[in-house]
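User: Show me a protein chain along with its predicted structure.
Assistant: Here is one chain, sequence first, then structure tokens.
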Amino acid sequence: MYHLSSYYVARMVGDLPMELVLPTIFVTITYWMGGLKPSLVTFVLTLLIMLFNVLVSQGIGLALGAILMDVKQATTLASVTMLVFLLAGGYYIQKMPSFIAWLKYFSFSHYCYKLLVGVQYSVNEVYECRQGLHCRVRDFPAIKCLELGNMWGDVAALTVMFVGYRVVAYLALRIGQPKCLRT
């Protein structure tokens, strides 16, 4: 028999192509169709952010599945968790009530959204806000509340989530493993 750690790492690495091919195709098509910034560097950064988003999401699924060990319960909890993360992330609701505003710091979509907006718009970029009047993009209310500027901090937060969810999943599998199979 294989050790749990060997199986777990092999399974994660083996799933990578399957997990990353379809999002790559999707982003490649929708990026250029959506009229986003026509720059190869920006496209590659957007693709990398989206793939990182997929991997963090997969980690949440692994962790919830390993903790609950029941497909129906894990699916229900994952749906609710993703909904909370999406709502708290700042994309749909810009001004969260103060008693739940802290949730955005646990939402991977919050960091991905900030990174995607930060990649698309430079600090000094302007847009025509009124006839003949130009305003800075960073002063637009929806972007101002994102507090852009610390992209490496956002990458670090996503990295912690990426590793953390996988460690939680591994530990849940390790703890849930029958004692006779532990080595």
